[in-house]
Amino acid sequence: MNKKKIFNDPIYGFISVPFEIILDIIDHPYVQRLRRIRQLGLTHLVYPGALHTRFHHALGSMHLMTQAIETIRSKGHEITQPEAEAVTIAILLHDVGHGPFSHALEHSVVEGIHHEEVSLMIMDRLNQHFEGKLSMAISIFKDDYPKKFLHQLVSSQLDMDRLDYLNRDSFYTGVSEGVVSSDRIIKMLEVVNDQLVIEEKSIYSIEKFIIARRLMYWQVYLHKTVLAAEMLLVKILLRARQLAMAGHELFTTPALREFLYHQHTRSDFNAQPELLLRFCELDDYDIFTSIKVWVHHDDKILSRLCMGMVHRKLYKIKISKQPISQLVVDEYTTCAQSVFETNAEDASYFVFTGDIENNAYNPAHDKINILSKDGTLIDISQASDQLNIQALEGVVKKFYLCYPAECIPL
Amino acid sequence: MNKKKIFNDPIYGFISVPFEIILDIIDHPYVQRLRRIRQLGLTHLVYPGALHTRFHHALGSMHLMTQAIETIRSKGHEITQPEAEAVTIAILLHDVGHGPFSHALEHSVVEGIHHEEVSLMIMDRLNQHFEGKLSMAISIFKDDYPKKFLHQLVSSQLDMDRLDYLNRDSFYTGVSEGVVSSDRIIKMLEVVNDQLVIEEKSIYSIEKFIIARRLMYWQVYLHKTVLAAEMLLVKILLRARQLAMAGHELFTTPALREFLYHQHTRSDFNAQPELLLRFCELDDYDIFTSIKVWVHHDDKILSRLCMGMVHRKLYKIKISKQPISQLVVDEYTTCAQSVFETNAEDASYFVFTGDIENNAYNPAHDKINILSKDGTLIDISQASDQLNIQALEGVVKKFYLCYPAECIPL
Amino acid sequence: MNKKKIFNDPIYGFISVPFEIILDIIDHPYVQRLRRIRQLGLTHLVYPGALHTRFHHALGSMHLMTQAIETIRSKGHEITQPEAEAVTIAILLHDVGHGPFSHALEHSVVEGIHHEEVSLMIMDRLNQHFEGKLSMAISIFKDDYPKKFLHQLVSSQLDMDRLDYLNRDSFYTGVSEGVVSSDRIIKMLEVVNDQLVIEEKSIYSIEKFIIARRLMYWQVYLHKTVLAAEMLLVKILLRARQLAMAGHELFTTPALREFLYHQHTRSDFNAQPELLLRFCELDDYDIFTSIKVWVHHDDKILSRLCMGMVHRKLYKIKISKQPISQLVVDEYTTCAQSVFETNAEDASYFVFTGDIENNAYNPAHDKINILSKDGTLIDISQASDQLNIQALEGVVKKFYLCYPAECIPL
Amino acid sequence: MNKKKIFNDPIYGFISVPFEIILDIIDHPYVQRLRRIRQLGLTHLVYPGALHTRFHHALGSMHLMTQAIETIRSKGHEITQPEAEAVTIAILLHDVGHGPFSHALEHSVVEGIHHEEVSLMIMDRLNQHFEGKLSMAISIFKDDYPKKFLHQLVSSQLDMDRLDYLNRDSFYTGVSEGVVSSDRIIKMLEVVNDQLVIEEKSIYSIEKFIIARRLMYWQVYLHKTVLAAEMLLVKILLRARQLAMAGHELFTTPALREFLYHQHTRSDFNAQPELLLRFCELDDYDIFTSIKVWVHHDDKILSRLCMGMVHRKLYKIKISKQPISQLVVDEYTTCAQSVFETNAEDASYFVFTGDIENNAYNPAHDKINILSKDGTLIDISQASDQLNIQALEGVVKKFYLCYPAECIPL
Q1: Which residues of chain B does A388 touch, with a Cβ-Cβ cutoff of 8 Å?
Q2: Which pLDDT score, from 0 to 100, does residue D391 have?
Q3: Strand C396-403's sheet: what is its strand order?
Q4: CB proximity C251 to B under 8 Å
Q5: Helix (H, G, I), strand (E, B) or coil at D2
Q6: Three-class SS state of A204
Q7: Per the CB < 8 Å rule, is D388 touching C385?
């Protein structure tokens, strides 16, 4: 019997591992690898405490799942031991396919391969390794399992993933306003007609949860300087890929080389089983170490971009409710051409636009059902005694312009 | 020089007293009396930790004022030392006129005398005692002082009173979701055209503040069991007053006797200076001690109501979005008549209806102005990128029915 | 089925009531009465947040007991359901016999009657009321029950009482250094030979627990101003008793009158069953309300002492490692005689000495046994790799002198 | 004027940058580099939250320094603005010379070069860059500055470094018992005869501080699994160095290559100014990325060790109060030789012993002086009313044995 069953967690105090097999899964290299992938990518450049990893988040979600199972059972709904184990494995592994800086990589080096697919591929490998013991977990993860509410605990508006990451991200960034009362929300969970719902008396907590999430989006996840850092990473990887395709030599780790020098597609992953292994060798270290070395690369653009990343001289960024006018872009591009002695095409590594969007609550996609005292289910945006949640349903879109500090705004 | 300048506070850590005179004011019996008046009346019957006093809240508000002064000064606005002292005194004394269980008393024993008037009367007395040194504080409190933003720090949508009580009430009740980031909000305060405003980047914090306040209203301040307890207190005091007026003898402290056996009006307070002194002798002890003794009173109704309070057998209460039908009231009244062997009139001490209301944000009454980056001022409900705050402007009204546990709902 | 099974607690978040019968016990007037008795008496005059009650502490201890039962069971030791219920009732009621300001009353009005005896009398009454269902709880409380470790959970160096009150007192005073890791300590509990012991790896946590307790003693429980306030209360009650015995009329509640005007002994409690009922009507309200009225009493000494209490003009106090010399006492007494125009005997209400003591760890009385990895048990003071705990075994005694502010030290 | 003057910190809420020049120093690549060096090396393998960096610790120490300056000034001691700036710079840069995994590197790759020397070299470079503006800071750091207490704020038993790292390490590991009341301790700082001392009333806080530190040592800094991880890193680097010296090719970053393939001495650093630049390119990324690649290296020993690190299969470790007997070492060595098919010399990469030590309080090295009320200074171990701190003065030494999991203990 493995003794190390308790993890210290600054947020929940102690995290106990509820099943023997889970300890073995945690010990597997595929999961240990998550120790080297930060949950929030480059956010620590703005919030210096935001260094927590996907590993810790996976443990935290597992912890909340244990509480949710307890609550739901205490309200008279059956969750068998195998189901409890399976749904806990499912949440533990829900993000196992994330590569380093997921979004940046998906926009540059491993285009077209979504992390959820990779998660499933990895779960299948683990299932082989553990001789079929993960089958029910995979079935729940894919929403094939008959008891639908189990999947909802893993993936829905009120899943354990979200409850943990809002708390965890808010804790480590120090943006204390993102804290949600996961305790209170979990205690109010109920199951009606095989649907995960929430008792009416927690309606204000749910409102606050939606607002907290909205706040975290604009204050952290889409913070303009975080965005500038992430876009810098995308541009670095795009430039490196461009150079690699053109046959230039670049310092990389062997694992990164595989993906930088080849354009692997989803079907490659299916055809070459060892490709997944290679992918699983990638983590934050491969990317950032290469960037540090590229500071000294001959290519002026790559070197310049990398220096910006390493010394934290990020793009300047403007956010606007309206699209950025081409005129403005042109002016900045002209400036960048002159500053970096480059052509218009290459100047686009320094001056570019894009958009970001967020909607706080989207019932079309996935409702939060409130269980009223008379037993009926109502969507939260209808159940609220005012229309404030309904008012949050629309998508908010914003536009940004990145440009170099050398080009002073006019 | 008095040495005890630091108070321990579980919320802020330490509270320092910023001016010498304030220490003397705190030591005055009028302020010491606030140690014996709970901030949240009977709320501790639902949230057992909610025992904090108006004294502690006054100190907490003072602490936040010190921070606000520092922030505003650091942004280049002048607050002279006398002004800083005065606005700090004003916040310290803003609630000094509260009697015990303010609302219950104002609805029974000291009808027609509002606690704000009493606060002003007490400040005037203190001003005499301190030889005019409180004049500027009083002027700020009454909004007579030229620099209007100083008054707004004491009384407005974002005053230090509100920031402290939301935090403090949420802390002591354990309803952690009511916590507001007072630190963050205070750091974002600005003054424009002599108006207290808030910088645009804190807009989501302000949204969360409004939601937190809404949550505290329904979860704590208007919690149905809290309401049932407060209504029980009102009914007890009304019955006691009725008996007193009819010449019955009741155990009371001398101070309570003055107000129970006489119907003092505002003009009595003006005409009889010693009446204020008597009022200032009243605190939670006088009321609750009397109730404990009244458990044994001959009057069955008074005794019954008091036993309910002392042993925490409160009214049952129903909350409804529609007014309670007279038919329902009549049925419960009939039941109560039979249970308590009484007439219909006296049964109304056990069965009655009422309404409660709250609006989360009311710009008609007092706006929260957001300072946008281009320097214009916008009302928060307009500044938000969605309409959710606007949606909170309406008043939410609910109706309640109180009835005895002996009368089982049909 | 009573639904209200969850209490909000600022410290543990939520406290669930683990057994149906416990809810009924909590609802009983004998337990509800603890809502009106502060855990720390007059400590709030120094730490304004320290207003928490014995009721909340009882709930908190019950919560920790639930955790301890879970831990001990998970390590393979049997605690049957009836035992779990009984030990939880025992901790809930462990302090039920405390009167208001226990120590002050025991030194003045109800001399010779210890609160533990009263607790047992009340438990017996409750046991009658609940038809014998508390018998096992009482047996555990009295240490008559065969499984000895159950009693140790209720009363020993590491009982749930102590773990809760250290945390709770430290939380509400704001003396954050008194916090102990109850979570961590409870998780390390073990049972060996029917003894409650603690696993070796928590040895530093236990050291810290002992230091935290020592700190709380000198910083809070024996804080000199707290001591001055408590001694003022003792002197007030002694004077009131003296006046009552001499036939003077004093304002009191009927319950307090019973004990102020009669010198009841333990045998009176046995002979007159209704005396316990009367005692259970007493709470903080009776005492403090009377003191407020006594401010206006004809007896100058009583009135003067009471004014000090109500307006927080406490004794000045000096603490010394040596006994206070009689010479010093005499000088202050002479001063007090002159200030208060009284004789030497009555001056002793204003000038007097006494001593306080504390020992941080007393293995003679009750050991903390550490379970080493090889299975042997060692006393903590021996188990520590240094002698620092052993160094704390001696009793520390200090002496104090109280005197009025009017008598300036020479 | 640079606007970004506030850092979010989960521990202190907000950290403000107090001086303009400090913002420029923080922005300098030498300081930005600390963002990539974890404060606690490999501790996160045991406490998954312990990912915080030396950068964040530097900011935190700076924050506490601001508070300390304020307190000391408020007690009437002069700290001029230039001194305040200098002492703040000194604390900000106190650890700037730390390389990645300092201890591991100092025991393998950069032997004989202590991080404090590197700190000074870097400060000198920065001083050139900032045209002499760091001269006073350097003077304080080196304890050359006349006002000695300024140096003590940077480096002594109660310096801001220690107060921050205890709090920070305890916060991020989740070992809540390491928390010290930095607020309370700082408020009690005083200066007497140019010495930093602490007021008598905080004596129990200081005791708790010493105990907390002791606890953190054994629970975190010298935690046996942390030790096993660190020793694994040392062995990896020693093996890599051995291979490099023997002319084998190893994947490294250019910066690491410089130090792996050359045995640079302190005089090399003096002779070759660019060597410091190279050293400042090293961070956690270089080391760990190389280790990840070395998993596939031809050398079986290196590859095996690296796999242990990457997949978290650490040494087993035994801690003992007595030295490990050679007999035991020999048995494990024999086992390792057989398991890894190697000779005795190479087996020492898998089986070895060592010792660790800690003393909680060492007055010989650096006293904590308590200022008693009569103005005299007493060492804390004498001032305590018991001998418990004195008991902590001795050094506690323990011995460890590392061995591979394949070799089951007999």
Answers
A1: 360, 388-389, 391-392
A2: 81
A3: C316-320, C396-403, C352-358
A4: yes
A5: coil
A6: helix
A7: no
> Under a CB-based contact definition with an 8 Å cutoff, are residues A240 and A294 in contact?
yes
pLDDT, chain A, mean: 93
CB contact under 8 A, D218 and C204: yes
Helix (H) or strand (E) holding D8: strand D6-9
CA distances to B192, C48, D127, D187 from B183, in Å: 20, 22, 36, 20
A34, pLDDT greater than 90: yes
Under a CB-based contact definition with an 8 Å cutoff, are residues C388 and D389 in contact? yes
Contact (CB<8Å) D56/A49: yes
Q: In the predicted model, what is the mean pLDDT of residues C301-324?
A: 96
- Residues C236, A271: Cα–Cα separation, whole Å: 90
pTM of the model: 0.91
> Token digits for A317?
């960024």
Return the half-sphere exposure (C-beta side, CA atoms, 13 A cut-off) of residue C263: 10
Tokens at residue B221, please?
């301040």
At B4, the pLDDT band (50, 70, 90 cuts) reads low
Quote the percentage of chain C above a pLDDT of 90: 75
Q: Which subunits sit against C, judged by 3+ Cβ pairs under 8 A?
A: A, B, D
* pLDDT at residue number A410: 58
List CB contacts (< 8 A) between D6 and chain B.
187
Q: How far apart are CA B305 and CA B295, in angstroms?
A: 8
Mean pLDDT of D313-340: 95
Q: How far is C213 from A310, CA to CA, in rounded Å?
A: 49
Q: Where do the DSSP E strands lie in D162-277?
A: 189-192, 195-199
All residues at 6 or more sequence positions from A345 whose CB lies less than 8 Å from its CB, including other chains: none
Tokens 């989960």, residue located: D10
* pLDDT tens-digit series, residues D45-85: 999 999 999 999 999 999 999 999 999 998 999 999 999 99
Rounded (10°) angle between helices C284-294 and C224-245 = 70
**How confident is the model at residue C163, as a pLDDT?**
96
State the Cα–Cα distance between residues B248 and B227, nearest whole angstrom.
Answer: 29
- Based on its alpha-carbon atoms, the radius of gyration of chain B, rounded to whole angstroms, reads 23
Tell whether A385 lies on the interface with B, counting CB pairs under 8 A: yes
pLDDT for res D253: 97
Angstrom distance (rounded) from CA C9 to CA C61: 12
Residue length of chain D: 410
Position A163: which residue type? L
- Distant-in-sequence, close-in-space partners of B262: CB < 8 Å, separation ≥ 6: none
Which residues face A199 on adjacent strands?
A371
CA distance B18 to B70: 12
**Can you tell me the distance from the alpha carbon of D108 to that of D239, in angstroms, rounded to the nearest whole number?**
9
- Encoded tokens for A55: 């590993």
DSSP conformation class of C38: B
Q: pLDDT digits over A293-319, tens only?
A: 999 999 999 999 999 999 999 999 999
Q: Which residue among D14, D183, D184 places its CB closest to the CB of B187?
A: D14
The answer to whether residue D389 neighbours chain C at the CB level (below 8 Å) is yes
The pLDDT assigned to C4 comes to 53
DSSP H helical ranges for C246-354: 254-260, 266-271, 273-279, 284-294, 300-310, 326-340, 344-347
CB atoms D391 and C387 under 8 Å: yes
CA angle C229–C233–C237, rounded 5-degree value:
170
Across the interface, do C183 and A6 touch by the CB < 8 Å criterion? no
Q: In what order do the strands lie in the sheet with A316-320?
A: A316-320, A396-403, A352-358
pLDDT at B410: 58
The pLDDT of D346-369, averaged and rounded, is 89
Beta carbons of A390 and B391 less than 8 Å apart: yes
Per-residue pLDDT reduced to its tens digit, A44-99: 999 999 999 999 999 999 999 999 999 999 899 999 999 999 999 999 999 999 99
Q: Is the dihedral angle over the CA atoms A263, A268, A272, A275 positive or is it negative?
A: positive
